[in-house]
């Protein structure tokens, strides 16, 4: 059906919740009418359920090609659709080959045919060895690039130093794309910490100072870039340390193009509540104490943190060492792609946030950051007809049986949440309805310059 309408008493449009009827034609939002408007096309009425802009998750590890036993485009984008995510951006590592050259990017694009249930953009990577290939990679359509300042865990994706970033940033500025940074610096002296089954031993091994020092370095790099006339966009991924928030605020006050994100696991989990030996909670940087968590919420409230993304980073159950509880050997990463909205809504509504706020933090701001805001991130005439239908009142417990990503493991199993995604539409295609996927994958790649 290429011409139809959706209506509800609660539709999020232009930062307001209003009664409205949204007309869809040829994959785009064609018109926005008053609720109850007589139309010549079929109208689906969702009563008091909330019609929201489809979420845009700009931090997802899909691992295809090369490590599809960890995850893959079919299962990851199904999980995204079940979570109301209508566009995501795939990370350049954990796949084989890593996305650091035009040829590797083409290999990734070749692997997505008929597998995307939602639309998908791609980040490239910057490593010391690929600076000369960077311009060609950016011209191929990646939306920006990512580097690590610390061992990534993947041999073919080594960390960069300041000299590498100095070489890369003018190229990124020319293309006007963000430079995403995994901001941890191994400052030493903590390598002697013995990591046992106690979660706190892992926490001690990756202290806040690693993040704080890395973010201070990136502010210096951003200042230098601005002084040289490039003014490269710098973005801190998955912020965990509350002690770095003032540094980020200072960068913003100086007028640097400096942004930062955090994730549901840092906003909904606290180290004091993580049982020893539960490797599903391991991620880098680590989940910190409850006081730290509350400070991150304050930063989301006042804008020091710009948006919320999943950092879905799955692996096989074997690599998580679930049975042995060996935190040191376990792969670090949280799997929870489809549960982001209910997890955040459960916490956010108690803090005075509205679904309008979450549409901004999980859709419009992420779309803008990834350069997708001309077509994604809001319900507006001419934009892609991307919607989710949300029941904000239903309460339930997350179970492993609900999981749509490849391996049915998540640290959130057994957690009670409020709010459920009931329907997802991607460019007007109804792809998900109350735990069922509809028809065939309709997603497509989102390439810079070809939206």
From TrEMBL:
Pathway: Nitrogen metabolism; (S)-allantoin degradation; allantoate from (S)-allantoin: step 1/1. Gene3D superfamilies: Metal-dependent hydrolases. Its cofactor is Zn(2+). The gene is allB. Catalyzes the reversible cyclization of carbamoyl aspartate to dihydroorotate. Keywords: Hydrolase, Metal-binding, Zinc. This is allantoinase. GO terms for molecular function: allantoinase activity. The keyword Metal-binding applies. InterPro entries: Allantoinase, Amidohydro-rel, DHOase/Allantoinase_Hydrolase, Dihydroorotase_CS, DNase_TatD-rel_CS, Metal-dep_hydrolase_composite, Metal_Hydrolase. It comes from the Bacteria. Its EC number is 3.5.2.5. The keyword Hydrolase applies. Homotetramer. Belongs to the metallo-dependent hydrolases superfamily. Allantoinase family. Residues 50-429 form the Amidohydrolase-related domain.
